[in-house]
Amino acid sequence: MTEKRTARAAATAAHGARTDAAGSVGSVVPATAALAARELRAVFSRLRRTLREASGTSDLTPSQSAVLSRLINDGPASASVLAAAERVRPQSMAATLAALEQRGLVGRRPDPEDGRRQVVSLTEAGLDHVADSRQARQEWLTRAMTEHYTEAERATVLEALALMDRLNR
Do 98 and 81 touch, CB atoms closer than 8 A? Predict the structure, then answer.
């Protein structure tokens, strides 16, 4: 944390934060909860950017990366299903898919159940791209954890991650 942010955090912690769950002025929440939420968001944002750079996918937009990830995790889908899942307009998804198709990462074929629709899926190049990207991120993160943390610190990180996972439940 920078000196300025540390001083601001200390002042906030001393007086308590008057915010609600959305960060709006309202009920009093523990200052440590507000500080932890801000810092966690900032750390994860920086880590996400660093991982994108390490994976070599920084030439893809976040939307394009999200679509590739969704296709590999959920399987082929129509553009409208992808748009709904990513919470974007169909026109925005069409532009994202066009860019991915131009790069040869996705392909379209007629939907066997509805000939008017097309199903989008990863091509071999798309599968390779996702696999290579995931491997590069894993290798970078493993190397960084080895170089920057002791065994005890890595154990602490694992404990913290278990706590963070509770937010998803």
Answer: no
